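Input record, target 12 of the design panel.
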C-alpha cells in the first residue's frame, strides 16, 4: 500500500511534522510505503476564479489552468492507495498552504474527471494546534467537510493539541498501522 501525506507545516521538525511522522511510522509498521510532502515551500497559487461566474476549466473539465505544483501533487494522490492531510491549526482553521491546495482540489472534484482517482480513496486528517489548542476540533470539522466534497473516504480525523501531543503521537502510530490494514 502506498500512502501520500500532505503536510501544511512549514517546520519539518515542529509539532505537525512530529504528528505526520508518527502516522507515517504506523503506516510503515503496517506494511505501507509512505511519502510525506511539505507544501509550504512548494509553488501552489490561489484559485483565480477564472470566469465571470467564478469557475473555469475546473468545473468544465476537472482540471485547473494554473501551471504550478498542484497537478503533480494531484497525480501523486491519484497514484497512492490512501492519502493523509496534516495541518497546523491557525485561528481554528487549516494552514494556508494546505487550504490553497484544497480550495483548488475541491473545485476540480466538482467534475467527474477531476474526481477520478480521488473519490473513494481512503483518507485521514490530522489537525495540530499549538497555543491553547482549542482550534483543533474546529479545524477537523473544516478539513472533513472539504475532503468530503472531494469524495474521499474519510477514515478518521485526529485533533491534536500541544498539550496532548505526546499521547496523540502514540494514537497516530496506532492509527497509521490500522489504516494500512483498513485501507486495503
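The sequence produced for target 12 reads:
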Amino acid at each position: 500500500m502506498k500512502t501520500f501525506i500532505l503536510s501544511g507545516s512549514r517546520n519539518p521538525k515542529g509539532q505537525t511534522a512530529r504528528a505526520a511522522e508518527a502516522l507515517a511510522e504506523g503506516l510503515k509498521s503496517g506494511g505501507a510505503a509512505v511519502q510525506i510532502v511539505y507544501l509550504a515551500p512548494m509553488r501552489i497559487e490561489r484559485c483565480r476564479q477564472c470566469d465571470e461566474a467564478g469557475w473555469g476549466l475546473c468545473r468544465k473539465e476537472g482540471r485547473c489552468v494554473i501551471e504550478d505544483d498542484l497537478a503533480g501533487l494531484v497525480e501523486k494522490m491519484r497514484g497512492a492507495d490512501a492519502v493523509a492531510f496534516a495541518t497546523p491549526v491557525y485561528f481554528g482553521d487549516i494552514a494556508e498552504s494546505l487550504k490553497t491546495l484544497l480550495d483548488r482540489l475541491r473545485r476540480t472534484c466538482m467534475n467527474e474527471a477531476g474526481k477520478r482517482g480521488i473519490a473513494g480513496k481512503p483518507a485521514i486528517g490530522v489537525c495540530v494546534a499549538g497555543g491553547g489548542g482549542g482550534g483543533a476540533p474546529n479545524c477537523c470539522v473544516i478539513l472533513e467537510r472539504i475532503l468530503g466534497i472531494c469524495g474521499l473516504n474519510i477514515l478518521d480525523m485526529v485533533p491534536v493539541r500541544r498539550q496532548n501531543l505526546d499521547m496523540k503521537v502514540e494514537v497516530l502510530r496506532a492509527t497509521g498501522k490500522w489504516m494500512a490494514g483498513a485501507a486495503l
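The chain is about 45% helix and 20% strand.
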